[in-house]
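User: Predict the structure for this protein chain, please.
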Amino acid sequence: MRGRNGDGADRRPEVELLRDADRPDSWMLVVDGTPQSHVDLSDPTYLDFEYMRRLGHVADLAAPPREPLDVLHLGAGALTLARYIAATRPGSRQRAVDVDARLVDLVRASLPWGRGAGIRVGIGDARAWLGERRDSSADLVVCDVFAGARTPAALTSVEFHAEAARVLRPGGTFAANVGDGRRLRHARAQAATALAVFANAALIAEPGVLRGRRFGNLVLVASDAPLPVAELARRAHRDPDMARLLSDGELERFVGGAAPVRDATAEDSPAPPADTFPR
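Assistant: Here is the predicted structure, written as structure tokens:
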């Protein structure tokens, strides 16, 4: 599970930039021992993390090829997906937010992006920042926010999903990086929460993760418009770490009796096991 704290934390996290020995112009951003982002400065279309490739598929299918998008990124990190969209969809307008100004300054100085990329980064609480965006102003909203390797509770509720739906244009897409394992109670509840707000949803993950055999990343996708599930499933299946897509009846069976999450009862996502991220 990768991500970055987008809601306030009391302690300043430990942040490192490590060079990728296999790709000379690539770097990994590590926050509190958790691999958070991987960036290839010479090839922003290279997506190393498996969940990021799936988010890349979502961005690829959010509009016709090379058509610019208006994108909001909750959780800035090293701006891996934003760089990918800037390269594959020139002219896109992207805004990102992160709570950690020190991290943003480090990425800006060490992993710079060109002014022509159309990427702007703000500092602040992700939920509050989203609440300040205009209605129907985005084509894609991506939530990839973690504090101490856990998604803050404020970004798991029906009320949060409703804010994302508000800022999306008709037919726009919401996508989230969800970390879970074992009984997948959190992932089931997140799928139920998305379906309480959006007309359509899908979940993409490796079969072992979907069966609860190991902790990992699941990508949740939702929209008021029909999702391109056939093409998303085909691309996920062809990835190096083959993944499955659940939608419609399969997703309903996965959700089972899980109830949508509300602000009043929301909890942080489960913490990954200590050995999830070998160094």
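The first strand starts at residue 15 and ends at 19.
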